Automatic annotation (TrEMBL):
The keyword tRNA processing does not apply. GO terms for biological process: histidyl-tRNA aminoacylation. The lineage of its organism: Bacteria, Pseudomonadati, Pseudomonadota, Alphaproteobacteria, Rhodobacterales. GO terms for molecular function: glycosyltransferase activity; histidine-tRNA ligase activity. GO terms for cellular component: cytoplasm. PANTHER family: HISTIDINE--TRNA LIGASE, MITOCHONDRIAL-RELATED, HISTIDYL-TRNA SYNTHETASE. L-histidine binds at residues 64-66, 91, 110, 114, 291, 296-297. It comes from the Bacteria. Pfam families: tRNA-synt_His (PF13393). Residues 6-171, 223-337 form the Class II Histidinyl-tRNA synthetase (HisRS)-like catalytic core domain. This is ATP phosphoribosyltransferase regulatory subunit.
Amino acid sequence: MPKQAKQSVGQRLLARFRDAGAEEIAPDILLPAGDLLDLYGEDIRARAYVTQDPIRGEMMLRPDFTVPVVQAHMSNGAEPARYCYLGEVFRKQDMGDTRPETPRDHEYLQCGFELFSRDPAADAEVFALFHDALAPLGLQAQTGDMGLLLDAVRGLPLTQARAEALMHHIWRPGRFARMLARFSAPAVARDFPEGPAPWAGMRTEEEMIRRIARLRGDAAVAPLPPAWSERLDRLFALRAPAPEALPALADLARDMPAIAPAVARIRARFDAIAACGIDLGAVIFDASHGRMTMEYYDGFTFSFLADRAGWPPVASGGRYDALTRVLGRGREIPAVGGIIRPGLVAELEGRA
């Protein structure tokens, strides 16, 4: 697809976002790596392009827009605020994904919209804006809520350390499942014999002593009862049109009281989306949807998918309240936003 066609679509989408009251913003392409590493950990290195600047130190080519937009807003932004942007992001190709039909470019165009607002209807406003912009393409709309899953894990009868470990890996389904299986089985006591050999390794002696103490303490913890793993499996597997998902969530909330506030929030969000004139029967609620998105989403998540094998979402987004708290150095404001890939929109329009 020619770059001119992608830019043309991007400019059209950008104009729609400006018409929705957004201020256009243009974050730098080269970003300090430290900020991104603090947020994502070393995993970001596998997805981003890293370079070294003799003065500014380690830098990254912009892997997304949300982080620099939040940084700019938290510095001097007012409330409420709406921003839009159009520009390239840079991501490394997934290892082993060499299928020619898979449109995962190293560099691709993003057009986005971010809303900073304490209005409870902000989720529905952003979702409706993206839904209306993409309606002619016949995409499948999907939603989720990471807050629902995080509340479910917090509500498990686990020690704080075990619950925090599970929440840390909730965006990594394989690791999460293995850890949950370990916590659901009787712990195996480990022997840490003391001897004359000196401490060795990357950790300090003090760190290793604390680690050994945690492992010894963890061995005495009772396993998670099977009923809770089964309830969690039911929640993670829930996928249905919104009108069918809501009663299923209410049933789960009776067995998992910790998720009741999140279920009420999801019901209110769907009511607000329906009030925008959107058919809820055409919107899929996938409880595990947020586990496949960026790790800074901590609430509502959404995506719009084309019926094309191997394609990434044409659009995606979500709520990231905690990110504003981290980048705002304690100050926070609820925020939700998303991006559209103009190149994929251009391809779909070209095939219509």
